[in-house]
């Protein structure tokens, strides 16, 4: 009897089991990817939160800047309006001042003109009075006295602040060496409407001066 090859004689080599299970590896890789994905999601969420906070802060700053700008614009408008009002007020005051100055100038010119007219009238009346007085008195004066009155009037006319009797006499003596001081004073005292005696100075420096008063006389009112 032939001995056949049996399984006992030649045992079949069994397949050696694999140490790595494909399913387990895939599961492990899947879990790793899932963890990474969750980490990415968490990181994205954190970035979103940070961006949101930053955007909110920027938005607040922008609103504050807008409010500040609006306030500055309002202040600028108020300042321009106030400046316009001030300019109008200045123009109004300048116009009023100019009108007032013009009125004052016209009033002053009018007063000056009236004063000159009154002065001319008074001088004319004074000249008439003096002429009338001289004509009236010339009939009562001697030739020497009339000459003295004329010379004294001329002398005092060029000395509007007056002069002492000695000064007047020294001038007249050159024309009439025989003339005395008392004669000069007597002639001037006889005509108070033409010659006035005034006091000037203080204390020991006080002196008597004669002034020409022909133009100070006016006709009495009727």
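Q: What amino acid sequence fits the structure above?
A:
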């Amino acid at each position: 009897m032939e001995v056949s090859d049996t399984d006992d004689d030649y045992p079949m080599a069994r397949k050696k089991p694999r140490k790595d299970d494909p399913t387990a590896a895939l599961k492990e890789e899947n879990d790793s990817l899932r963890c990474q994905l969750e980490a990415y999601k968490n990181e994205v969420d954190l970035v979103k939160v940070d961006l949101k906070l930053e955007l909110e802060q920027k938005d607040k700053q922008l609103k504050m800047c807008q409010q500040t700008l609006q306030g500055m614009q309002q202040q600028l408008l108020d300042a321009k309006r106030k400046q316009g009002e001030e300019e109008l007020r200045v123009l109004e005051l300048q116009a009023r001042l100019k009108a007032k100055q013009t009125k004052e100038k016209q009033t002053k010119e009018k007063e000056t003109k009236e004063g000159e007219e009154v002065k001319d009238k008074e001088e004319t009346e004074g000249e008439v009075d003096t002429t009338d007085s001289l004509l009236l008195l010339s009939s009562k004066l001697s030739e020497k006295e009339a000459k003295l009155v004329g010379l004294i009037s001329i002398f005092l006319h060029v000395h509007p602040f007056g002069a002492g009797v000695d000064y007047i006499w020294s001038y007249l003596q050159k024309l009439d060496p025989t003339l005395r001081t008392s004669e000069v004073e007597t002639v001037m005292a006889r005509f108070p409407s033409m010659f006035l005696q005034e006091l000037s100075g203080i204390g020991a420096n006080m002196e008597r001066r004669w002034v020409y008063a022909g133009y100070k006389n006016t006709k009495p009112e009727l």
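Q: And what stands out in the fold?
A: The CA atoms of residues 4 and 190 lie 204 Å apart.
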